Amino acid sequence: MLTRKQHELLKFIQVRLEESGISPSFEEMKEALDLKSKSGVHRLISALEERGFIRRLPNRARALEILRQPEDVTSKPAAKAAVPAGQDALAALKQPERTPEPANDVIEIPLHGRIAAGVPIEALEGQSMLPVPAALLGSGEHYALEVSGDSMVEAGILDGDFALIRRTNTARDGEIVVALVRGEEATLKYLQRDGAMVRLVPANAAYEPQVYGPDEIEVQGKLAGLLRRYH
Amino acid sequence: MLTRKQHELLKFIQVRLEESGISPSFEEMKEALDLKSKSGVHRLISALEERGFIRRLPNRARALEILRQPEDVTSKPAAKAAVPAGQDALAALKQPERTPEPANDVIEIPLHGRIAAGVPIEALEGQSMLPVPAALLGSGEHYALEVSGDSMVEAGILDGDFALIRRTNTARDGEIVVALVRGEEATLKYLQRDGAMVRLVPANAAYEPQVYGPDEIEVQGKLAGLLRRYH
DNA sequence: TTAATTGTTCTCTCATTGTTCACAGGCAGA
DNA sequence: TCTGCCTGTGAACAATGAGAGAACAATTAA
């Protein structure tokens, strides 16, 4: 799950937090890992974040938080050892013991409009904000889209749902992404790579997968959460 | 998670609360941190609030509350016992005061456990709290359940989703409800009345609708919203 | 009502910290 | 070999953290 360096950094952060309660700065992490540039640290931090081991507030100094321990925990298993693998993310929601569930663990993310409406989402910037429990998101930058259409019904994504999207340019096979097609149309689909080609696969037998060249598709984010309202 | 100053201030507030039970004023915190202006304190307080370590009532003097301890806890367990988690949220809701719900439109609702697990949900009272955007809920009392199983997949409700339930005894035909069957088992299903009988209809062709007598079923709430998290 | 206490904001200023880029080497698998 | 991934470096740049001082607003006590 982790590379040697990522693991080393995670350990360091953990020790620091337990000893002093103060997050290390990038500079300090740089020293600890014996690097000569902070950008390396930056990449490691991003990797740890992406894998769900830490959480952070963007653009805030010393704002790291450990969500999960590496598998081989040798030093201090006690408190967290009981957490079954895979459930870690949700553990944050369920464990009142360790985290008393802060009342304002809420993030406001911008609501950019409807998706699958044939308009690049960037065009609809800066409308209303949607408050979302931080536990639903990882960290990183997020935004929300209202889902339009039924092309993802079989993935449990219905017309009118709010999709919470984490902004990213990269995605792995099988993930649900917001893809901008030929700079024109944004859609929410499963992503599949087929050699150099990219396939956008709907979750609805009534629709066909579409195949595009690598230059025709731009990933704008991946699905991180979903909100639905019943009336 | 914290910078040196933030940590120092949090410690100070904590000690003060434990010793005297009275929140320090900005002036006192200013002195304690050896500052010459209160605005610095203000910024630190905001940072602590943003990170979920403290909570405060806006425009109220000496209204600080510690929600979370820094990792390196050296002196603590006392403070914790005095402030049961969750209590604060309810207090905030009940106070007919000027500030019904501090600033944001977020409501904390209790997470009662998993549904369709064969256990009456009432038995699982008082676990953790889940912050939810108020916009997702209507009025009334709500709680959350984690969905277990795939009996409602065709309604876009997947295993592991969080169902937001509005507590009510009544429901109309065709609504999705939490139904307690024979006082034993709680399930999430479509409700249909058939004369005096009540039918619970799953949204999955692999399952059969179940028919019960009016005395066998107790409606505990209706589905008001849904949260899902992708990893 | 007045006065005292306390919290909120603003503007400046400087230091600290985080972000991003371009460029490059090493390594494993196709 | 080519490609993708991890790693390393350096530097420019952007943003936040922190402190001061003052005016102002809100709440509480007299």
From TrEMBL, chains A, B:
Record has Protein transport as a keyword: no
GO term, biological process aspect, one: negative regulation of DNA-templated transcription
UniProt family annotation: Belongs to the peptidase S24 family.
Domain LexA repressor DNA-binding span(s) in chain numbering: 2-63
Name the record gives this protein: LexA repressor
NCBIfam families named in the record: lexA
Function as written in the Swiss-Prot or TrEMBL entry: Represses a number of genes involved in the response to DNA damage (SOS response), including recA and lexA. In the presence of single-stranded DNA, RecA interacts with LexA causing an autocatalytic cleavage which disrupts the DNA-binding part of LexA, leading to derepression of the SOS regulon and eventually DNA repair.
Record-annotated active site: S151, K189
Molecular function via GO: DNA binding; serine-type endopeptidase activity
Originating organism: Novosphingobium mathurense
DNA-binding stretch(es), residue numbering of this chain: 26-46
EC numbers for this chain: 3.4.21.88
Transcription as UniProt keyword: yes
Secretion signal span: none
Reactions that this protein is recorded to catalyse: Hydrolysis of Ala-|-Gly bond in repressor LexA
Site (Cleavage): A117, G118
Assigned keywords, A-Z: Autocatalytic cleavage, DNA damage, DNA repair, DNA replication, DNA-binding, Hydrolase, Repressor, SOS response, Transcription, Transcription regulation
Gene3D superfamilies in the record: Umud Fragment, subunit A (2.10.109.10), Winged helix-like DNA-binding domain superfamily/Winged helix DNA-binding domain (1.10.10.10)
A Pfam match: Peptidase_S24
Transmembrane segments: none
Domain Peptidase S24/S26A/S26B/S26C residue range list: 110-223
Quaternary structure annotation from Swiss-Prot or TrEMBL: Homodimer.
